[in-house]
Structures are given as structure tokens and as C-alpha cells.
Write a structure and sequence with these properties.
Elements: E1 16-17, H1 18-34, H2 40-52, E2 58-59, H3 62-71, H4 75-94
Antiparallel strand pairs: 1-2
Helix pairs in contact: 1-2, 1-4, 2-4
InterPro entries: ComFB (IPR019657)
Protein name: Competence protein ComFB
Pfam families: ComFB
């Protein structure tokens, strides 16, 4: 037991923004489908733009990651993410940084 009386598990703690994982997946998917620039710089620029428009959702465990992903997979939220990704990709296409 630790100092506050909770049993320590062997689970490793991390700090992960689940929204970032979802946005990265959506950006890659959109680039494949629309023929956008697949370079790493454009991908990261699009991710940064989309993420700046979305609220983060941080977790610290793998269990938290799974639960949060399930919670964020509702159609309304996924539509919001898709809209922000589309806007970000439009900006990157119009003003690529390379």
C-alpha cells in the first residue's frame, strides 16, 4: 500500500492526449482519401491546427486511454473532429510550409 492507502499496481503511468491520437488518425485518413501532401511536416501542421481548435482529453493509464477513446467515439464528437481536420488540411494545402 502507498501513503494514501491505495494498492500500487504494476501499471505504468503515462500522460497522453487522446484527442491527439484521434486527430492524427483522422489527418492520415483524410490525406490518403483526398490526395493531400503526405509529408510529415504537412501532417504535423494539420494536426496542430486541428488540435488547437479542440479541447484536450488527457489520461494517465492504458485503461483510461481505452475508456476515453470509447467515450469520444460518439458520432457528434467525431463529426466535430472531422470538421476541424478538414479546416486544418485546407489551410495547409493553401499555405504549405515547404
Amino acid at each position: 500500500m502507498n501513503a494514501v492507502g491505495l494498492t500500487q499496481s504494476s501499471e505504468e503511468f503515462v500522460l497522453v492526449n487522446i484527442v491527439e491520437e484521434i486527430v492524427r488518425e483522422k489527418v492520415r485518413e483524410a490525406v490518403r482519401e483526398t490526395g493531400g501532401c503526405p509529408c510529415r511536416k504537412c501532417e504535423l501542421n494539420a494536426c496542430a491546427l486541428a488540435l488547437n481548435a479542440l479541447a484536450p482529453k488527457y489520461v494517465t493509464t492504458e485503461r483510461g486511454r481505452l475508456l476515453a477513446r470509447v467515450g469520444l467515439m460518439n458520432p457528434d464528437y467525431l463529426m466535430k473532429v472531422s470538421i476541424e481536420v478538414a479546416k486544418a488540411l485546407k489551410v495547409v494545402r493553401e499555405r504549405p510550409l515547404h
